[in-house]
Amino acid sequence: MNDFSMQITLETVPVPNPNLFLREENKRGGVLFDPDTGSVRILNITAAETWKLLDGRRSLAQIIEILKQQFDGMDDSAEEKLLELVRKFFRIGALGLPAERTP
Amino acid sequence: MPTPRTVDLEITSRCNARCRYCYYQNNKGVEYQDLPTSSWLEFFDELGRAMVMSVCLMGGEPLLREDFFDLIDGIVKNRMRFQILTNGTRATREFAKRLRKTGRCFSIQVSLDGSRAEVHELMRGKGSFEPALQAIKVLKEEGLPITVRVTVHGSNIDDLQATAYLLLDELGLPNFSTNSISALGSRAKYGDNLLLTPAQRLQAMKVLALLDKQYPGRIQATAGPLADWKMFGEMEAARLGDNPIPGRGHLVGCGCTFSKIGVRSDGAYVPCIMLPQLVLGYIGKDSLEEVWRNSGLLNGLRRRISIPLDSFDECEGCEYLRLCTGNCPGTALSLSKDPNRPSPETCLRKFKHDLGAEGLSIWQN
Do A26 and B106 make contact, defined as CB atoms within 8 angstroms? Predict the structure, then answer.
């Protein structure tokens, strides 16, 4: 399987895997559930909000702007943290690239 | 939690077996009727919107439903996983292949009470052993996550060793689980005659404890003699060491109402399948989220964890007070007519009293 995770930039528009869903169980975040594998990944509040914004239309740059408005005190490292989180989502198959981008 | 993570679904009241000790049948106040396919499919859509992660299909015998795979399609479409509890009689190879293709079945449990027909069929009925055994073999061959439930009763304790050998060594299952006959259901018809006597219960505990050592991690139990052995042993050790077990001393035995809900075959929401008489609402009429969040009955059960055991007369002076959980509200309701009381079935003080002097000396050894 090709690893697209390292090709991710702020201009990337990731596409979420439609099979996975986020269960928000409390105000601290939620669980990302994959019914095909049964895997349950706990997301903190920032990761959960990021997942909710990954709609296949927004770029990562747009998402980070929204997150900066939602969360006070996001510093300069926020962009790199977001990119790392998104790369993780790619590596577990939670995200993909739009069809025209796939080699 | 805004919605349950998992839902137990009694998708049919029909069963092709007549197990003498069945917990499902003979419960007063329970309507035994089936819903049409459309009702279940609409409910699965609601479960999907509610982000429920999994369902457990049971009955009755769930494989009797002619629309079984239509229901499975509805579950899969709504991004859920599922497990099945079955007697295995309808689990053909074709069924197994079709089930495996869904990719969403994470467990299929077949009931088997003995290593040979003479033992299994004492309670499960004539002709039931071979189909169950065949089902286990076929499901395993087809790569499905099969497990087996052995219900312990007075007539199969001496066969437990052979049953463990059959399941774990001959058939190579990774594990099996045990429980014992419940006070639910059958008790209404047969009284206490089917339940383990204190001496039998102790004998079963000892046999299963030895098997647990022989097959470490491969015999599971959340209720019944093996679970009791572990729980009672933990409580006894804590008492002797004068060490309270954190979080006990209240009715904390049940966590189900915080993550799970049940639905009867007639569509009634119930807190748990062990509390089938406590109706919270009906699917198709009452919203799952509304019932889950706002049912007074359900929230009352959740508040059990704040009820101290020393508020009950039957717990007065008990040396295990700080160590006990009060256990299952379902058996409490069956035996004491009140789910918000400790269950006498898992009372260690009562168990030791009922053993008598001879039994107690065996227990202590």
Answer: no
In a domain, A69, yes or no: yes
Expressed as residue numbers, the domain containing A74 is: 16-92
Within-domain flag for A34: yes
Domain assignment present for A21: yes
Residue A100 resides in a domain: no
What is the ipTM score, two decimals?
0.86
| pTM of the predicted structure, to 2 decimals | 0.92
> What's the structural domain count of chain A?
1
Q: The domain spanning residue A49 has which CATH number?
A: 1.10.10.1150
d(Cα B118, Cα B344) in Å, to the nearest integer?
32
Least confidently predicted of B20-24, B155-159, B161-165, B202-206: B20-24
pLDDT (tens digit, 9 = 90+) per residue, A11-69? 999 999 999 999 998 889 999 999 999 999 999 999 999 999 999 999 999 999 999 88
| Long-range Cβ contacts of B91-100 (<8 Å, 24+ apart) | B91/B63, B91/B135, B91/B138, B91/B139, B92/B138, B93/B138, B93/B141, B93/B142, B95/B63, B96/B138, B96/B139, B96/B141, B96/B142, B96/B144, B97/B142, B98/B69, B99/B72, B99/B142, B99/B144, B100/B142, B100/B143, B100/B144
CB contact under 8 A, B5 and A23: yes
Q: CB distance A26–B5 less than 8 Å?
A: no
Chain B residues touching A22 at Cβ < 8 A: 51
Alpha helix (H) ranges present in B16-169? Answer: 37-49, 68-77, 93-102, 117-124, 129-141, 160-164
